[in-house]
What we know:
Blueprint: H1 2-16, H2 19-39, H3 46-62, H4 64-77, E1 81-85, H5 88-102, E2 106-109, H6 113-117, H7 120-126, E3 130-133, H8 136-144, H9 160-171, H10 179-196, E4 199-202, E5 206-208, E6 213-218, H11 222-228, E7 232-238, E8 242-243, H12 249-261, E9 268-272, E10 286-292, H13 296-300, H14 316-320, H15 322-327, H16 338-349, H17 351-354, H18 366-370, H19 377-390, H20 396-409, H21 412-417, H22 420-435, H23 449-461
Parallel strand pairs: 1-10, 2-3, 2-4, 4-7, 5-8, 7-10
Antiparallel strand pairs: 5-6, 6-9
Helix pairs in contact: 2-12, 16-19
Amino acid sequence: MRTIQGKFHRESQSKAEDLEHRRMMNHALNQSEIAFQNGKQQFQNLDKAKEDAQSVKEKATIHLDRYLLEFEDRFTKNGGKVIWARDGKEALEAVWKICAEKKAKKIVKSKSMVTEEIHLNAFLQKKDIEVIETDLGEYIQQLSEEPPYHIVAPSIHKSKEEVAQLFHEKLGVRPHLGPEELTMVARRQLRTEFQEADIGITGVNFLLSDIGGVAITENEGNARMVTAFPNTHIAITGIEKVLPSAKDLELFWPLLATHGSGQKVTVYNSIFTGPKHRNETDGPEDMYVILLDNGRTNILSDPEMRESLHCIRCGACLNVCPVYKNIGGHTYNTVYGGPIGSVITPHLSGMKEYGHLSHASSLCGACTEVCPVKINLHELLLKNRRKSVEQKNTFRLEKFSWYIWKRSMLSRRMLNTANGNTKERMFRYLFKKSWGENRAIPTFPKKSFNEQWKERNSKIEK
C-alpha cells in the first residue's frame, strides 16, 4: 500500500507543478465543457432524461442476472457464442483459445477500456500475436507505448506537435505535419491492417437484452471496419453494460454522445446480433461475446456501492474534476482514472492497495452534478473512505494525527493557547512536506476568533 500510495503522491505533486501539462489539460477540458454546454441544448429537460436513464440502469442492475441470461439466450439463437469470465485471467484464456483455433497472427482492435483492464495487448504480444489499435487516440498511445490518459479521449494530454514528432519517429513520415495530414497518415497505415487481420476485437457500449444485441457507438468508423473485414469478431464487455431493451438506446445514445463529446449523437452507431447469415455479404463468420465479471459482482453485492455499476463510461466526471485536471490520467496508475475510477478501482483491485484514490477528491460534487445517470459519485468517495478506515487501512501516524486534532478541536483552552506564530511553526513541522514547496505557508491570525470575539464584546460592555 505504501508503494502504490507513495507513487501516487509523488507523481501527483510532479504533475500538479507541471505548468505545460496544466495548460494542455485546461485547454482540452475547457473545449470539452464548451462542447457539452452546446450539446446538452438538444434536451428539453436534461435532468428528466438523466432520471429516466438512472431508472433504467437501476432496473438493469437489480435484475442483472435475468437480463444477462436473456441476452445469452437471444444471442446464441442468432448464431453467436457467449463466454462467461470470472476474472481477467479467464477472459485472456478465452481469447487465446479462440486465437489458437483460428491460427490468428494479427488482430485489429477498436477502442475498449475493458481490454485495458485485463491487459489484453501485452498478453497477446507475449503469444507472438500482433495487435493494432485502430482508434486514432488509442493508436497514438500504442505508438507512444503508453496506456490511455482518458476514458473517451486517450491522448488528450498530447499536443499536435508531439503527435507529429511521434509519427515522424515511429512511422517515418516527414516532421511537422498538421492534424489533417496526421489523420490521413494513420488512415493509410491502418487500411491494410483491417484487410490483413484474422480477428477483430471490440469493446461494448451496451448489451441489449431483448434482442441479444451488442451496441457500439463511435466517431471514426474503425469499429465497423474491425467487425467487417476479419472473419472472427470478439466483443469483450463488463457484465454491467446491459440494457433491458433496444428501445433504451434512443435515450442512452444521445446521453452518452452529449456527455462524452458534446454531440447530439455520434457518427457511427451499430448493433450486432451475431455473425453474418447466409444472405449477408459483410460481417464475421464467427462472433463471440465475453462477459467479464472481474470484481463487478463484489460491487453488485454491496447495496451502498451498487449504483457505480450504472456508469456508461462517458468520461464527463473526468472532464469536470479539478483533481484529474491537475494531476492527469496516468498518475492514478489504474485503468479508470478520475472520480469514477476512484470509486470503483478499490472494489475491483483492492481497497488496501487503492483506497487512497478516494481521498484524491475535493468533494466539490461537480462529478455528481454532471453524471448522465445521476451516480452520487462524491458520496460514494466518502463511503469508500469510511470502508477503508473500517478495514484498518490507515497508518499509525495518521491515527495519531487525527487523535491530536480531535483533542484540540474539543478543547477551547488548547485552541486559544496556540497563537498565530505557534500554529505556523506546528504547520511547518507537521505538514510542510505534504503541503508542497510551491505553495505559500498559510498565515494564521495572532488571536483566535474566540479571543477576538470576547475582546470585542468586553469593549462593547464597557
